[in-house]
Task: structure prediction
Amino acid sequence: MTAMIVPIANTGAGAVLGGSRVVRFAAVRRGPDVLEIDRLDPVTLDRLSAPRPALCGLTLDRPRVMGILNVTPDSFSDGGDLESVAAAVARARALAADFLDIGGESTRPGAMPVPEAEERARVVPVIEAIRAAGIATPISIDTRKASVAAAALDAGADLVNDVSAGTYDGAMFSLVAERGVPICLMHARGDPQTMQDDPCYDDVVAEVLDHLATRLAAAEAAGIPRDRIVIDPGIGFGKTQEHNLALLRDLAAFHALGPPLLVGASRKRFIGTIGRADAPKDRLGGSLAVALHAALQGAHLLRVHDSVATTQALRLMLAMNGAGASDEGD
Ligand code: HH2
Result:
């Protein structure tokens, strides 16, 4: 198992965390010990702090907002909201996000798989219409299927978000390598139908880290260069509330792998439970709290439903930390 190093993230002093404009760390936790960064080996220190490569032309020195556009009838919080292509385009515009993440298959707990042709028919017209409307925001296609990813890329998508990290469809990594696009590798345990049936880990952070290291190596072996890979601990995918909280608490541990870090916690069940909000759409306050926490642990991409509110919160966080609120020069 990977030896876990958890940067103690702070603002103001030490080395930058994950190439961030605002988050720094002067010490790390390793097991029970706290080490000053001058006691870290240079390779580890470099991996933890090196600037991350730009993604689809966007720098990752500040957190970027990925707005969720679900074109599904059954997503847990917004399923069925978008009943026409025109409504999806209007939503894409209203999200005003740095990235758009478009999905045609719900991966909520208990969801049934969607046939490939059906999933393609949901996402392709929406991507084509977004591009035809002149919206140039980078689009990520949220799918586990290589044929859906291929059709979405043909229609104008720029990167692939695979919640199975290439384990669902053996053709996914070769497609991504061949097309030369970035991919987000997310940790999940089990499939959506069964993943919440009593998930168990000895040490959830170490095990998720190890799994992502293995998938990262598999993606590289399939010809996807490291500078086109994003990683994600997969909040809510085969995890209890305690697992989610442990992953968020030690989020900075994931910087040790090197790639940019994406976090998707928006409106998820643990936010409703802890924040006492039964309806997913009532979970904005808790979702913002988690997004800001993740940003202050150096997360590079925040996958959210409420992108306008999240962008506003991040601008304030950046301004208060002296990093400027504006995106001028991006
Ligand atoms: N969460 C969901 C879907 N895709 N992708 C990444 N990389 N990370 C996530 O945490 C993640 C994801 C589930 O949320 P949502 O899309 O809102 O719901 P549904 O799966 O029901 O469509």
In short: The chain has a mean pLDDT of 94.
